[in-house]
Amino acid sequence: MKQHFSGFYTPTEDEFNKIWTSGTFVFDANVLLNPYRFQTIAREVLLKAFSAVKDRIWIPYQVGLEYHFNMYEEIIKQKKAYEKLENKLLKKVVELENDYREHSARHAHLKLPEHLHKKYKDLIDGMVEDLNKQKTQHPDLNKVKESMLSIFNSKIGNPLSKDRLEEIYTEGEERFPNKVPPGWKDVTKKKGQTKYYNGIRYQDEYGDLVMWKQIIEYANDKKVDVLLISDDNKEDWIKKEDGETIGPQPELIQEFQRETNGRKIYICNTRQFLNNILT
Fold it and tell me: Is 163 within a domain?
């Protein structure tokens, strides 16, 4: 049965070892953005893991496009997180005072004890002070950008032509209503959203499908098996039953093997990737 339904079966230990030791590592954009989000130790571990497989890394052009369109946003978002949290903390004191004022207007004996008010305010002030200290120790994420560049600079595929992109978009229009993975979950969220770069307009709702097609084309061209590392856990990538994660959608495995003359693909997330690198 396995020859007809291989997508429903995880690789054997021997099959996994073969893919892991000789396959090409392909990273989704959500994984490439993790070094900007992770704390220092986790960031260093991930960057070392990328470097450990540097000779067998490749990323689709679509991944590079999404990474660069989100890179600076992630850097700025990380810096502004301190300010956002500080504002939320300071509002807590005002909210407490307003709550007491509202209720005491209808209950003459309900008041905010001054000594408790001071303790609460001192606690919030202490948290804000510590937050500002952490802000001064925030890493220079532009250095992370340079580290990523040194690892992935020459490991990216070429852009597709406008005609090829239109072919994929047209195929997506047929696939998505039938929930053929990947990408059909992005229709509602990304419908109508586009990116314009280097003379080409990219339709975001088909981004995952474009990436998928580029991976298949690369595997065919280079005659390699693929280890795809992605943190996308939506149902257009991951099969779930009654809240339990089963694994990659079987149709993805079947399509990859069908379109690459039997080549293998293994799909896992960042945590699984690191666990296998570190063991």
Answer: yes
> What is the predicted pLDDT for the residue at 150?
94
**Which regions in the chain score pLDDT beneath 70?**
105, 108
pLDDT, position 27? 97
Residues 6+ apart with CB under 8 A from 160: 61, 168, 210, 214
Residue 63: name the closest of 51, 54, 73, 71 by CA. 71
- Alpha-carbon distance of 127 to 155, in angstroms, equals 44
Measured distance CA(127)–CA(119) in Å, rounded: 12
Report the DSSP pairing between strands 226-229 and 265-268.
parallel
Q: For the CA atoms of the chain, what is the radius of gyration? A: 24
Are 97 and 90 in contact, with CB atoms under 8 Å apart?
A: no
Residue 47: inside a domain: yes
Do 225 and 186 touch, CB atoms closer than 8 A? Answer: no
Q: Which domain holds residue 123?
A: 77-136
* Residue 263 contacts residue 257 (beta carbons within 8 Å): yes
Q: Is 92 found in the same domain as 65?
A: no
pTM of the model: 0.82
CA angle 89, 91, 96 (to 5 degrees): 105
Distance set, CA 141 to CA 39, 63, 276 (Å): 11, 20, 26
Helices 61-104, 114-136: axis angle to 10 degrees equals 160
146's enclosing H/E stretch is helix 141-152
Domain count, the chain: 2
- Beta strand 194-197 with 226-229 is unpaired
Residues 156 and 219 in one domain: yes
The two three-digit tokens of residue 18, written as one number = 């073969």
Identify the three-state secondary structure at position 86.
helix
